[in-house]
Design goal:
The structure is a single chain. This protein has about 375 residues and is of the alpha+beta class. Helix content is about 20%, strand content about 40%. The chain has four helices and 25 strands. The strands form six sheets. Strands 4-19-23-22-21-20 form a six-stranded antiparallel sheet, with no helix packed on it. It has a six-stranded antiparallel β-barrel with strand order 5-14-17-16-15-18. Strand 15 and strand 16 form a beta hairpin. Helix 3 runs antiparallel to helix 4. The longest helix is centred in the middle third of the chain and has 32 residues. The protein starts with a strand and ends with a strand.
Protein backbone atom coordinates (compact mmCIF):
# COMPACT_ATOMS: atom_id res chain seq x y z
CA UNK A 1 0.00 0.00 0.00
CA UNK A 2 1.43 3.40 -0.94
CA UNK A 3 0.38 6.88 0.09
CA UNK A 4 0.77 10.45 -1.07
CA UNK A 5 0.15 13.64 0.85
CA UNK A 6 -2.03 16.61 -0.16
CA UNK A 7 -0.78 20.22 0.28
CA UNK A 8 -2.96 20.43 3.39
CA UNK A 9 -1.15 17.46 4.93
CA UNK A 10 -3.94 14.87 4.60
CA UNK A 11 -2.99 11.37 3.43
CA UNK A 12 -4.24 9.86 0.19
CA UNK A 13 -4.21 6.14 -0.53
CA UNK A 14 -3.12 5.10 -4.03
CA UNK A 15 -4.19 2.00 -5.88
CA UNK A 16 -0.90 1.31 -7.63
CA UNK A 17 0.36 -1.20 -5.04
CA UNK A 18 -3.04 -2.70 -4.14
CA UNK A 19 -3.55 -6.26 -5.42
CA UNK A 20 -1.57 -5.64 -8.65
CA UNK A 21 -2.68 -8.75 -10.49
CA UNK A 22 -6.33 -8.17 -9.70
CA UNK A 23 -6.14 -4.48 -10.67
CA UNK A 24 -4.53 -5.43 -13.97
CA UNK A 25 -7.26 -7.97 -14.69
CA UNK A 26 -9.99 -5.46 -13.99
CA UNK A 27 -8.37 -2.67 -15.99
CA UNK A 28 -7.77 -5.06 -18.88
CA UNK A 29 -11.48 -5.75 -19.01
CA UNK A 30 -12.38 -2.01 -19.26
CA UNK A 31 -13.95 -0.65 -22.42
CA UNK A 32 -11.28 1.17 -24.43
CA UNK A 33 -13.89 3.53 -25.89
CA UNK A 34 -14.50 5.23 -22.51
CA UNK A 35 -11.18 6.65 -21.22
CA UNK A 36 -12.44 7.86 -17.81
CA UNK A 37 -14.48 4.72 -17.20
CA UNK A 38 -13.48 1.21 -16.20
CA UNK A 39 -15.73 -1.64 -17.18
CA UNK A 40 -14.97 -5.06 -15.75
CA UNK A 41 -15.87 -8.13 -17.77
CA UNK A 42 -17.55 -11.21 -16.29
CA UNK A 43 -14.25 -13.04 -15.80
CA UNK A 44 -12.56 -10.14 -13.99
CA UNK A 45 -15.68 -9.52 -11.90
CA UNK A 46 -15.56 -13.13 -10.78
CA UNK A 47 -11.97 -12.70 -9.64
CA UNK A 48 -12.84 -9.46 -7.82
CA UNK A 49 -15.99 -10.62 -6.08
CA UNK A 50 -14.17 -10.86 -2.75
CA UNK A 51 -12.71 -7.35 -3.09
CA UNK A 52 -15.45 -5.24 -4.67
CA UNK A 53 -18.69 -4.43 -2.91
CA UNK A 54 -21.60 -2.56 -4.48
CA UNK A 55 -24.38 -0.77 -2.62
CA UNK A 56 -27.27 1.55 -3.48
CA UNK A 57 -27.11 5.29 -2.92
CA UNK A 58 -29.31 6.10 0.06
CA UNK A 59 -31.08 9.09 1.52
CA UNK A 60 -30.04 10.10 5.01
CA UNK A 61 -33.32 10.75 6.78
CA UNK A 62 -31.72 12.34 9.85
CA UNK A 63 -28.98 14.42 8.26
CA UNK A 64 -25.29 13.76 8.76
CA UNK A 65 -24.45 13.87 12.44
CA UNK A 66 -21.27 15.29 13.93
CA UNK A 67 -19.83 15.67 17.40
CA UNK A 68 -17.67 18.69 18.13
CA UNK A 69 -15.75 19.96 21.16
CA UNK A 70 -17.32 22.74 23.17
CA UNK A 71 -17.27 24.48 26.51
CA UNK A 72 -19.69 26.19 28.85
CA UNK A 73 -19.36 29.97 29.13
CA UNK A 74 -21.23 32.93 30.53
CA UNK A 75 -23.46 34.85 28.16
CA UNK A 76 -22.51 38.48 27.49
CA UNK A 77 -23.78 40.57 30.37
CA UNK A 78 -23.80 37.61 32.78
CA UNK A 79 -20.53 38.69 34.42
CA UNK A 80 -19.79 41.68 36.63
CA UNK A 81 -16.68 43.02 38.30
CA UNK A 82 -15.92 45.33 41.21
CA UNK A 83 -12.73 47.41 41.15
CA UNK A 84 -11.26 50.16 43.27
CA UNK A 85 -12.69 53.59 42.33
CA UNK A 86 -10.01 55.36 44.42
CA UNK A 87 -6.53 54.60 45.64
CA UNK A 88 -6.53 53.01 49.05
CA UNK A 89 -5.72 50.01 51.22
CA UNK A 90 -7.78 46.84 51.68
CA UNK A 91 -9.16 46.55 55.21
CA UNK A 92 -11.14 43.32 54.76
CA UNK A 93 -12.63 40.94 52.18
CA UNK A 94 -16.26 40.14 52.96
CA UNK A 95 -16.86 37.21 50.55
CA UNK A 96 -15.25 33.93 49.49
CA UNK A 97 -15.05 32.14 46.11
CA UNK A 98 -18.24 30.32 45.16
CA UNK A 99 -20.40 32.39 47.48
CA UNK A 100 -23.74 33.53 46.09
CA UNK A 101 -24.37 37.21 46.74
CA UNK A 102 -27.25 39.58 46.06
CA UNK A 103 -26.95 42.91 44.31
CA UNK A 104 -25.58 45.52 46.69
CA UNK A 105 -23.94 43.03 49.06
CA UNK A 106 -20.58 44.18 50.54
CA UNK A 107 -17.56 42.62 48.85
CA UNK A 108 -14.43 44.49 49.98
CA UNK A 109 -13.84 47.24 52.56
CA UNK A 110 -11.18 49.85 51.73
CA UNK A 111 -9.53 52.73 53.55
CA UNK A 112 -9.12 55.63 51.14
CA UNK A 113 -8.03 59.22 51.77
CA UNK A 114 -9.28 60.10 48.27
CA UNK A 115 -12.76 58.89 49.20
CA UNK A 116 -12.67 61.13 52.26
CA UNK A 117 -11.59 64.07 50.10
CA UNK A 118 -14.49 63.70 47.62
CA UNK A 119 -16.98 63.37 50.48
CA UNK A 120 -15.57 66.54 52.06
CA UNK A 121 -15.74 68.32 48.71
CA UNK A 122 -19.40 67.31 48.37
CA UNK A 123 -20.24 68.65 51.82
CA UNK A 124 -18.52 71.96 51.02
CA UNK A 125 -20.26 72.25 47.65
CA UNK A 126 -23.64 71.61 49.24
CA UNK A 127 -22.94 74.30 51.86
CA UNK A 128 -22.01 76.84 49.19
CA UNK A 129 -25.14 75.90 47.25
CA UNK A 130 -27.30 76.54 50.31
CA UNK A 131 -25.67 79.99 50.81
CA UNK A 132 -26.22 80.92 47.14
CA UNK A 133 -29.86 79.83 47.31
CA UNK A 134 -30.43 81.90 50.47
CA UNK A 135 -28.73 84.97 48.93
CA UNK A 136 -30.95 84.81 45.84
CA UNK A 137 -34.10 84.51 47.97
CA UNK A 138 -33.13 87.65 49.92
CA UNK A 139 -32.42 89.58 46.74
CA UNK A 140 -35.78 88.59 45.27
CA UNK A 141 -37.53 89.56 48.51
CA UNK A 142 -35.87 92.96 48.47
CA UNK A 143 -36.82 93.46 44.82
CA UNK A 144 -40.40 92.64 45.74
CA UNK A 145 -40.42 95.38 48.39
CA UNK A 146 -38.87 97.88 45.98
CA UNK A 147 -35.61 98.30 47.86
CA UNK A 148 -33.46 95.87 45.90
CA UNK A 149 -30.92 96.52 43.17
CA UNK A 150 -31.31 94.68 39.86
CA UNK A 151 -27.58 94.14 39.35
CA UNK A 152 -27.28 92.46 42.75
CA UNK A 153 -30.12 90.06 41.88
CA UNK A 154 -28.33 89.13 38.61
CA UNK A 155 -25.13 88.54 40.58
CA UNK A 156 -26.98 86.26 43.02
CA UNK A 157 -28.46 84.26 40.16
CA UNK A 158 -25.00 83.76 38.60
CA UNK A 159 -23.56 82.67 41.95
CA UNK A 160 -26.39 80.13 42.35
CA UNK A 161 -25.80 78.62 38.90
CA UNK A 162 -22.09 78.25 39.70
CA UNK A 163 -22.84 76.62 43.04
CA UNK A 164 -25.30 74.20 41.42
CA UNK A 165 -22.72 73.10 38.81
CA UNK A 166 -20.08 72.60 41.49
CA UNK A 167 -22.46 70.55 43.63
CA UNK A 168 -23.38 68.36 40.66
CA UNK A 169 -19.69 67.58 39.97
CA UNK A 170 -19.09 66.82 43.62
CA UNK A 171 -22.09 64.45 43.76
CA UNK A 172 -20.82 62.51 40.74
CA UNK A 173 -17.39 62.08 42.31
CA UNK A 174 -18.83 61.14 45.70
CA UNK A 175 -21.19 58.59 44.11
CA UNK A 176 -18.16 56.38 43.41
CA UNK A 177 -17.43 56.32 47.12
CA UNK A 178 -20.99 55.32 47.98
CA UNK A 179 -22.77 56.11 51.20
CA UNK A 180 -20.76 56.62 54.32
CA UNK A 181 -18.36 59.14 55.78
CA UNK A 182 -14.64 59.53 56.26
CA UNK A 183 -12.09 57.17 54.70
CA UNK A 184 -14.09 53.95 54.92
CA UNK A 185 -15.19 52.76 51.49
CA UNK A 186 -17.28 49.63 50.85
CA UNK A 187 -17.24 47.99 47.39
CA UNK A 188 -20.62 46.39 46.74
CA UNK A 189 -21.85 43.79 44.24
CA UNK A 190 -23.12 45.53 41.09
CA UNK A 191 -25.41 42.55 40.37
CA UNK A 192 -26.50 39.27 41.91
CA UNK A 193 -24.31 36.26 41.15
CA UNK A 194 -21.66 33.86 42.35
CA UNK A 195 -18.17 34.99 43.33
CA UNK A 196 -15.83 33.68 40.63
CA UNK A 197 -12.53 35.23 41.62
CA UNK A 198 -11.06 37.39 44.39
CA UNK A 199 -7.89 39.38 43.80
CA UNK A 200 -7.78 41.32 47.04
CA UNK A 201 -6.27 40.61 50.41
CA UNK A 202 -6.17 42.55 53.63
CA UNK A 203 -3.39 45.11 53.67
CA UNK A 204 -2.93 45.28 49.91
CA UNK A 205 -2.69 48.70 48.25
CA UNK A 206 -5.09 49.17 45.34
CA UNK A 207 -5.65 51.86 42.75
CA UNK A 208 -8.24 52.67 40.08
CA UNK A 209 -7.56 51.26 36.64
CA UNK A 210 -6.10 48.01 37.98
CA UNK A 211 -7.60 44.54 37.66
CA UNK A 212 -10.96 43.81 39.24
CA UNK A 213 -10.82 42.96 42.93
CA UNK A 214 -13.87 40.66 42.74
CA UNK A 215 -15.52 39.00 39.72
CA UNK A 216 -19.11 37.74 39.73
CA UNK A 217 -21.06 35.55 37.34
CA UNK A 218 -24.71 34.58 37.02
CA UNK A 219 -24.88 30.74 36.81
CA UNK A 220 -28.34 30.98 35.31
CA UNK A 221 -26.91 32.72 32.23
CA UNK A 222 -24.75 29.96 30.73
CA UNK A 223 -24.54 28.88 27.10
CA UNK A 224 -22.41 26.47 25.10
CA UNK A 225 -19.65 27.56 22.73
CA UNK A 226 -18.62 24.95 20.14
CA UNK A 227 -15.80 25.25 17.60
CA UNK A 228 -16.87 23.98 14.18
CA UNK A 229 -14.45 23.34 11.27
CA UNK A 230 -15.20 25.75 8.44
CA UNK A 231 -15.89 22.88 6.04
CA UNK A 232 -18.77 21.79 8.30
CA UNK A 233 -20.55 25.16 8.44
CA UNK A 234 -22.79 24.70 5.41
CA UNK A 235 -26.40 24.40 6.48
CA UNK A 236 -25.87 25.54 10.06
CA UNK A 237 -28.29 28.26 11.13
CA UNK A 238 -29.84 29.64 14.34
CA UNK A 239 -32.56 27.36 15.63
CA UNK A 240 -30.94 24.04 14.67
CA UNK A 241 -31.19 21.61 17.54
CA UNK A 242 -28.31 19.79 19.19
CA UNK A 243 -27.50 17.49 22.08
CA UNK A 244 -24.92 18.49 24.67
CA UNK A 245 -23.08 16.10 26.95
CA UNK A 246 -20.86 17.23 29.80
CA UNK A 247 -18.23 14.74 31.05
CA UNK A 248 -19.24 13.32 34.41
CA UNK A 249 -22.95 14.06 33.85
CA UNK A 250 -24.49 11.14 32.01
CA UNK A 251 -27.55 13.08 30.89
CA UNK A 252 -27.82 14.76 27.47
CA UNK A 253 -29.09 18.33 27.40
CA UNK A 254 -31.23 19.62 24.54
CA UNK A 255 -29.91 22.83 23.01
CA UNK A 256 -30.29 24.90 19.87
CA UNK A 257 -28.01 27.25 17.96
CA UNK A 258 -28.48 30.79 19.23
CA UNK A 259 -25.97 32.53 16.97
CA UNK A 260 -22.95 31.88 14.77
CA UNK A 261 -19.63 33.72 14.89
CA UNK A 262 -18.44 35.90 12.02
CA UNK A 263 -14.70 35.17 11.99
CA UNK A 264 -12.84 31.91 11.37
CA UNK A 265 -9.78 31.24 13.52
CA UNK A 266 -6.89 31.64 11.01
CA UNK A 267 -4.83 28.88 12.64
CA UNK A 268 -7.39 26.21 13.53
CA UNK A 269 -9.81 27.09 10.68
CA UNK A 270 -12.77 26.85 13.04
CA UNK A 271 -15.77 29.07 13.65
CA UNK A 272 -17.45 29.43 17.06
CA UNK A 273 -21.17 28.78 17.34
CA UNK A 274 -23.23 29.61 20.41
CA UNK A 275 -25.97 27.32 21.68
CA UNK A 276 -28.65 27.95 24.30
CA UNK A 277 -30.21 25.35 26.56
CA UNK A 278 -33.78 24.68 25.50
CA UNK A 279 -34.71 24.15 29.15
CA UNK A 280 -33.38 26.97 31.31
CA UNK A 281 -33.32 24.65 34.32
CA UNK A 282 -30.95 22.29 32.46
CA UNK A 283 -27.93 24.40 33.38
CA UNK A 284 -28.40 23.81 37.11
CA UNK A 285 -25.23 22.36 38.60
CA UNK A 286 -23.11 23.32 35.59
CA UNK A 287 -20.25 25.80 35.72
CA UNK A 288 -18.60 28.03 33.17
CA UNK A 289 -15.41 26.49 31.82
CA UNK A 290 -16.68 22.91 31.77
CA UNK A 291 -15.92 20.91 28.64
CA UNK A 292 -18.83 19.67 26.54
CA UNK A 293 -19.51 17.49 23.51
CA UNK A 294 -21.96 18.99 21.05
CA UNK A 295 -23.77 16.70 18.60
CA UNK A 296 -25.75 18.37 15.86
CA UNK A 297 -26.96 17.76 12.34
CA UNK A 298 -24.42 19.12 9.89
CA UNK A 299 -26.44 18.69 6.70
CA UNK A 300 -30.08 18.98 5.69
CA UNK A 301 -32.41 16.04 6.12
CA UNK A 302 -32.94 14.00 3.00
CA UNK A 303 -29.36 14.34 1.71
CA UNK A 304 -27.91 11.64 -0.56
CA UNK A 305 -24.93 9.98 1.09
CA UNK A 306 -22.42 7.25 0.25
CA UNK A 307 -19.61 5.66 2.28
CA UNK A 308 -16.38 7.64 2.17
CA UNK A 309 -14.64 4.64 0.56
CA UNK A 310 -16.80 5.06 -2.54
CA UNK A 311 -15.35 8.46 -3.46
CA UNK A 312 -12.11 8.60 -5.44
CA UNK A 313 -9.99 11.66 -6.20
CA UNK A 314 -8.59 12.25 -9.68
CA UNK A 315 -6.09 14.91 -10.70
CA UNK A 316 -5.87 16.19 -7.15
CA UNK A 317 -9.34 17.71 -6.99
CA UNK A 318 -11.94 15.90 -9.12
CA UNK A 319 -14.25 13.60 -7.14
CA UNK A 320 -15.73 10.53 -8.78
CA UNK A 321 -17.42 7.24 -7.97
CA UNK A 322 -17.87 4.04 -9.95
CA UNK A 323 -21.37 2.95 -10.92
CA UNK A 324 -22.29 -0.62 -11.76
CA UNK A 325 -24.39 -0.73 -14.91
CA UNK A 326 -27.04 -3.28 -15.85
CA UNK A 327 -24.46 -4.99 -18.07
CA UNK A 328 -22.16 -5.53 -15.09
CA UNK A 329 -19.58 -2.96 -16.19
CA UNK A 330 -18.24 -0.25 -13.89
CA UNK A 331 -18.41 3.32 -15.19
CA UNK A 332 -16.78 6.40 -13.61
CA UNK A 333 -19.17 9.18 -12.65
CA UNK A 334 -17.96 12.69 -11.56
CA UNK A 335 -19.72 13.92 -8.41
CA UNK A 336 -19.79 17.04 -6.24
CA UNK A 337 -19.49 16.27 -2.54
CA UNK A 338 -20.65 18.09 0.58
CA UNK A 339 -19.91 17.50 4.24
CA UNK A 340 -18.19 14.27 5.28
CA UNK A 341 -18.27 12.71 8.70
CA UNK A 342 -18.91 9.46 10.50
CA UNK A 343 -17.64 7.51 7.48
CA UNK A 344 -20.16 8.95 4.99
CA UNK A 345 -20.06 11.72 2.39
CA UNK A 346 -22.93 13.90 1.23
CA UNK A 347 -23.43 13.89 -2.55
CA UNK A 348 -24.66 17.20 -3.94
CA UNK A 349 -24.54 16.40 -7.67
CA UNK A 350 -23.91 13.42 -9.93
CA UNK A 351 -25.98 10.65 -8.33
CA UNK A 352 -29.59 9.82 -7.61
CA UNK A 353 -31.20 7.58 -5.07
CA UNK A 354 -30.93 3.90 -5.99
CA UNK A 355 -27.78 4.16 -8.13
CA UNK A 356 -25.48 1.14 -7.67
CA UNK A 357 -22.11 2.44 -6.45
CA UNK A 358 -18.88 0.60 -5.71
CA UNK A 359 -18.34 1.18 -1.99
CA UNK A 360 -15.46 -1.21 -1.43
CA UNK A 361 -12.55 -1.91 -3.77
CA UNK A 362 -13.11 1.16 -5.96
CA UNK A 363 -9.35 1.72 -6.08
CA UNK A 364 -8.98 -1.54 -8.03
CA UNK A 365 -10.85 0.04 -10.94
CA UNK A 366 -8.48 2.98 -11.42
CA UNK A 367 -4.77 2.77 -10.68
CA UNK A 368 -4.42 6.56 -11.09
CA UNK A 369 -7.04 7.44 -8.49
CA UNK A 370 -6.49 8.31 -4.88
CA UNK A 371 -8.72 7.86 -1.87
CA UNK A 372 -8.92 10.37 0.94
CA UNK A 373 -8.41 8.70 4.31
Amino acid sequence: MSYTTTPSGRRLRRAGALVPALAAALLGACSSSEPPAAAAGPGAQSEARHYIKVDSVGVDGEGLQGTFPGRLAFRPGAMAAAGAPFAGRVLSVEVHPGQAVRAGAPLVVLQSAEAADVRTALAQAQARLAVAQDLLRRQEDMMGRGIGVEVERYSAEAALREAQAEAARARQAAALAGPGAGERLVLRAPAAGVVLAIRAQAGAVVAPGGEALVELGDPGQLWIVADIPERELRGLAPGRTAQVRVPGIDVPFAASIDSIGHAVDPEQRRMPIYLAFQDKAAGAGLTAGMFAQVSLAGGPRGALTVPSTAVLIKNGSQRQVYLQGTDGKYVARPVRTGVARAGRVEILEGLKEGDKVVVQGALLLDNEAQQLL
